[in-house]
Amino acid sequence: MRPGITLKLFLAILAASAVAAAAMALATRLSFQSGFFGYLSQVEAQSLESLALRLADEYRRSGDWSFLQGDYARLRALATPPQATQRLTVLDAERRTVLGNPELGESAMRPVIVADRVVGWIARSPSRRISTGADLAFQQQQMRAAWLIAAFAVALAAAVAFFVARIFIRPVKRIAEATHRLAAGAYDTRVTVGSRDELGRLAGDFNRLAETLERNEALRRRFMADVSHELRTPLAVLSAELEALEDGVRPLNRDSLASLRAEAAALSKLVDDLNQLALADVGALAYRKQTLEVAPLVEQAVESFRDRVAERGLALETELDAGARVFADADRLLQMLRNLLENAARYTDRGGKVRVTLRDGGNRVAIDVEDSAPGVPADALPHLFERFYRVDASRSRANGGAGLGLSICRSIASAHGGDISAAPSPLGGLRVSVTLPAAA
């Protein structure tokens, strides 16, 4: 079984703490040894000064160094502490050995002064190790204390590492568990955002990802249902027409053939629209852009719809600013304008009006297609550009169309770096506004 991230984090913190505690204990030992030897040297220097004064007093009474010739017991009695005399050497004024080891080496020396005259020297050889039992016991006690403190620090670090690892890993485990549920298809999974640090931002990003996946899944299911429904309608009509022709209920004449051709055309347009949207979704819809004037394109689209609008009993008005230029694909813009005009002509009551406006705003070019009653409810405006969306009642399926025209218009506007929006029209119906970046 592989160790989990909690155990790994615990071991990492514990290892770091153990190394730090060991380093601290070793540094404490080295520092203590250095400081303790320094302390002992300072104590010995003070005792050497005291011994020099005692030797001066004895020399003053004796007049020479005869009182100390070969008498280690006398020197031991004068020294403090007495057991330190094995490292002492007494010299006369000419630095000849009176008592002790003549090999001085790096010994510390203090003059013996009598009546402002140096009569001799007292030297102590340096200590290479701790010699007295009390000093050695004190050193061992300090070393044991240092290692005990280090062990306590490691134990405390282990406890802290355990709780810290659990606290830090808990949100990560929640996100990991939620990710497993999300991968299994539970798109309604969410995690609680409990902080503003990196983990909090990760939780927020996860929630946004889950919302996007949930929304896309809902759109996919709705799209499949709508496509199957839209395909079913013309196919059902075609099947019924053909069945009626086979049974002799309807005669095979121009009218029946025209009806079949109309249903086939509706089915062909639906498939073509779906293909256009699919290409736009994957970025494969071809655009051949160039700098062009918009007014002639709008006039061309309007002229192609004059007869269609006249058949519906509608008035068609235009207000076009000449000179507006954009960097765009002329065929795609014509397709977008025709879709907008078709939408307006199809859903406007007889005797109404359709108005097309082109405005040059300097860095933006705006195209508005407005129609008269009936209007669109305010709550339906944000959904008009969704695929297969229709407003019930006045803008129903009875008027024809698959509800894909405005979706295609949105894809074309977006591909040109523009925007498209819907709002109530002053004429009483709907106003669709397209804004495109003006050409340099």
Beginning-to-end CA distance, first to last residue: 65 Å
Q: What is the number of E strands?
A: 11
**The CATH fourth-level homologous superfamily of the largest domain:** Histidine kinase-like ATPase, C-terminal domain
Q: Any guess at the CATH architecture of the largest domain?
A: 2-Layer Sandwich
Poorly predicted segments? 393-398
User: Portion of residues in helices?
Assistant: 40-55%
* H/E element order: HHEEEEHHHEHEEHEEHEE
Sheet with the most strands: spatial strand order: 6-8-9-11-10
Number of helices: 8
Major β-sheet annotation: 5 strands, mixed
Strand residue percentage: 15-25%
Structural class: alpha+beta
What's the level 1 CATH class of the largest domain? Alpha Beta
- Described by the principal axes of the CA atoms, the overall outline is rod-shaped
Whole-number mean pLDDT: 78
Instruction: Return Rg in Å.
Output: 51 Å
Task: Describe the 3D structure.
The protein contains 8 helices and 11 strands. By secondary structure, it is of the alpha+beta class. It has 3 domains: 14-124; 198-281, Signal transduction histidine kinase, dimerisation/phosphotransfer (DHp) domain (Helix Hairpins); 290-437, Histidine kinase-like ATPase, C-terminal domain (Heat Shock Protein 90), CATH 3.30.565.10. A 5-stranded mixed β-sheet has the order 6-8-9-11-10. The radius of gyration is 51 Å and the shape is rod-shaped. The two termini are 65 Å apart.
Output the keywords.
Heat Shock Protein 90, alpha+beta, 11 strands, 8 helices, four-stranded antiparallel β-sheet, 3 domains, five-stranded mixed β-sheet, Helix Hairpins, 440 residues
